Amino acid sequence: MLGYIDPKKFETLVEVSAVINSNYGDPRKLLTYILESATRLVEGEASSLVLHDPGSGKLRFEIALGPKGPEVANFTLNPGEGIAGWVALHGQALIVNDVEKDSRFFPEISKSIGFPTYSILAVPMRLRDETIGVIEIINKKSNKYFTQDDLDWLQAFSIQSALAIQNARYLEFAHNEIRLLRDQVQAGQGWHTMVVESPLMKEKIDLLDRIARTESSVLILGESGVGKELFAEQIHLRSDRKNAPFVRVNCAALPEGLLESELFGHVKGAFTDAIANRRGRFELADGGTIFLDEIGDVSLRLQAKLLRVLQEKSFERVGASESVHADVRIVAATNKDIETQVEKGEFRSDLYYRLNVLPIYVPPLRQRKEDISALAEFFFRRSCREMNKKLLGFTDSAMGMMLSYSWPGNIRELENAIERAVVISREQRIGISDLLLGPGAGQTDEFVGKSLKEGLTNFKRHFIKKALEESRWNQTEAARVLDIQRTYLSRLIKELAITNTKE
With 80 as the cut, is the pLDDT of residue 350 above it? Predict the structure, then answer.
């Protein structure tokens, strides 16, 4: 037990406890904060928080701090392997001040990353009677030895870490239940409104209509914030499955172990807090559609299980051996370059080709400027209604700025900008100063004092002319870059009186 209590260390421990008991939003940041505090107080050079993965049965380095932290995070351990594995298996803390003389030491990780290990301090993290992970401190600074006092302090921090993980699990469980209830709302309620004005997007909607009538898997590609979830909703609502469930899953929001349980369910006792059998999202979506957002973030192990669902329409719950059948159409989406992931071996090629039966690309907002004004008006009316404000609209200069801005955050950024502008505006019309747009939102003379129609015409003329110049006035190539039909480009050139001034 702790003898003399260092006031500074005790104060740090109290601060950590206070943070845990507050409504801390990001569990991973909280665990990193705890590990940083523990490492500092026992004067370690590096540290890791190692968690047991109930799906694979292995120990994975959830958080790794120090010069080689990012490289360490790529490793896993088998139960009993290494100092951390031994501590996890036996539930006992260890001080090893000369690792070379300890047979339990696993030197491969240290050699692989080029970080010499001399001493290790490791303590188990326990919830109830189960060891869920290990806190491991590597090398005490100034070539010192770890002491019993260091071990006592680290055990105190391991208790804090276990509490943080438990709180995160309860919070995640509550959020999952809320999402499940939301996802089971009857069709026609809670759907997003799709606002489309540009010819480019109208072509996409026509393609979407044809895709929806099939039963094939769909892969939606596009940058973050372009509205991929709206496309997934519309595929479901325009399909024969429209009266069945539409279930959403953000694959990037959960770690691998929780994501597997979320997708496929679990049986009682499969892992800590599995107090009852629970159906996963695939079972809830039976007869309908499941939307797997950010599919590019799914681990290779889970990709294999998804492939089986696509091929056989069956799977097992976590901890069970009996197969469950589910008739589900899969619509997946990603903002990553998934073909590059396949080439690098980060995404299974067989799963990619099964998902990519009907691909659809959602263009960024900067390529469909005609939608900006329509979306801005839609978000403006909605924000005014929700905030009970009576504004008249936008000034011409504000609309001109929105039309000239590149919108790197796409529709999500536009929505946030309009909502913010409605909140802070003191005039009857939203002006440039209310939009608070980022770099690149400069005002140009061709939009000043012009009507919305004139502003749109000017923008289209300059935008198309730039594409033609970059394509050396090759209309076929320019049409490909603009993602429109060549015949439509030819018509726009005539309507907008676009000429090659260098001829």
Answer: yes
C-alpha span between 301 and 359 (Å, rounded): 24
Residue 358, beta-bridge partner list: 218
Look at residue 315 and tell me whether its pLDDT is greater than 90: no
Report whether 486 contacts 476 (CB < 8 A).
yes
> Which residue's entry shows tokens 């067989």?
350
Structural domain range at position 398: 366-495
pLDDT at 501: 55
Phi first, then psi: give them for residue 24, nearest 5 degrees: -75, 125
Is residue 262 domain-shared with residue 287, that is, in the same domain? yes
Domain boundary among 361, 389, 406: 361
Within a domain: 500: no
Q: Are strands 323-325 and 314-316 parallel, antiparallel or unpaired?
A: antiparallel
DSSP state of 193: P
**DSSP for 10-62?**
HHHHHHHHHHHHS--S-HHHHHHHHHHHHHHHTTEEEEEEEEE-TTT--EEEE
Residues 223 and 331 in one domain: yes
How far apart are the C-alpha atoms of 44 and 142, rounded to whole Å? 9
Residue 1 lies in a domain: no
Query: What six digits make up the tokens of 55?
Result: 């799906």
Largest CA distance in the chain: 88
From CA 117, how far away is CA 97, in angstroms rounded? Answer: 10
Helix or strand holding residue 387 (H, E) = helix 370-387
Cβ atoms of residues 266 and 318 within 8 Å: yes
Structure tokens at 461: 């003329």
User: What are the angstrom distances between the C-alpha of 44 and each of 8, 308, 440, 457?
Assistant: 17, 45, 45, 63
**Residue 183 confidence (pLDDT) above 60:** no
Q: Minimal CA–CA distance to 406: which of 461, 367, 350, 449?
A: 367
**What whole-number distance in Å separates Cα of residue 57 and Cα of residue 169?**
18
Whole-prediction pTM: 0.54
| DSSP at 405 | S
Give 59's strand partners: 52, 77
